[in-house]
Specification:
Layout lengths: L15 H8 L2 H12 L9 H7 L4 H32 L10 H25 L5 H38 L5 H31 L16 H4 L2 H20 L12 E3 L6 E3 L9 H6 L8
Antiparallel strand pairs: 1-2
Helix pairs in contact: 1-4, 2-4, 3-4, 4-5, 4-7, 4-9, 5-6, 6-7, 7-9
Length: 292
């Protein structure tokens, strides 16, 4: 039975593309739209040319760059929620408190977003000194590297949980379906993040204000816009369809107090996951490293 509409925890996955763009401020639209065209004099494969070749409305090539930077964090957050619900379903093999998946990984992702915002502000502000601009660039580089680490750590946690469940004979088909969807989604996000990392590192130290600058020495990733569409727009578009076509609410119980018994067949409704440690302790030490 489909539970897609009845489960509020997964509403974050619905209509993501419909509400993000209208909420953006005009200056944000301008910034990301400008990033779409990259550097027009250097771009032989322009948005106009691309929109004339692809069977999509031209508005997609205009709005996509302003939308995709927001999709990746939203889909990451959705995947954190999804894994947490899977851990609630088989709690006795959970490597950490299921509720701490979103607080732990979401907290680190929030730090990444703060670093990104601060780094962009410091490095792009012409009034700042060179040292402040360099500090901003360092923040952006750190944010990208940390984001890659978060994705790898998150997938590692999910794989460890899956192997433990398989070893103990409770890896039922619907759990595998949700986990495989999660891996595919995070893989698409990883492709996008690697592209963003390579893109920024290739241009971070480039001085566009110098009259002696030869823009033809820029990386092809910067000079040709099709890299953006292949490695950022397409993965996020596929992710949108993936998370709607294989929505986790179709496979998981509506309540997180319903869990799978150790026989791998019976579903039982109980009091929910219980951790003898206090909330603050589980928040600061989600993996119970002190107790190991």
């Amino acid at each position: 039975m489909l539970r897609r509409r009845s489960n509020p925890l997964f509403l974050i996955l619905r209509w993501t593309c419909c509400f993000i763009s209208p909420l953006q401020k005009d200056d944000e639209q301008t910034i990301f739209s400008t990033s779409s065209s990259r550097y027009p004099p250097l771009n032989p494969f322009s948005t106009e040319q691309l929109s004339s070749l692809l069977p999509f409305p031209r508005c997609i090539s205009w709005t996509a760059p302003s939308l995709t930077p927001f999709l990746s964090p939203v889909y990451e957050l959705a995947n954190y929620i999804t894994l947490g619900r899977v851990l609630y379903y088989i709690p006795y093999h959970s490597p950490l408190h299921p509720g701490r998946v979103i607080t732990t990984f979401g907290g680190v992702s929030a730090i990444v977003e703060i670093l990104t915002a601060q780094g962009a502000f410091r490095s792009a502000n012409k009034k700042n000194s060179q040292s402040e601009k360099d500090a901003g660039k360092a923040m952006l580089k750190a944010a990208l590297v940390i984001q890659l680490g978060v994705i790898i750590a998150f997938v590692t946690l999910a794989v460890r949980f899956q192997l433990t469940c398989k070893k103990n004979g409770v890896l039922v088909q619907k759990v595998k379906t949700v986990l495989y969807t999660l891996y595919a989604s995070m893989g698409l996000i990883l492709i996008r993040t690697i592209f963003r990392t390579v893109e920024y590192f290739s241009i971070a130290d480039f001085d566009f204000s110098s009259s002696d600058t030869n823009t033809q020495t820029l990386s092809p990733i910067i000079r040709y816009e099709w890299f953006f569409y292949v490695f950022e727009l397409v993965p996020m578009l596929i992710n949108t369809f993936l998370l709607n076509a294989r929505h986790p609410a179709m496979f998981l119980p509506k309540k997180n107090t319903v869990y799978l018994a150790k026989d791998g067949v019976t579903e039982i409704e109980g009091p929910g996951y219980k951790d003898r440690r206090g909330f603050v302790v589980t928040l600061l030490d989600p993996f119970d490293l002190v107790g190991l």
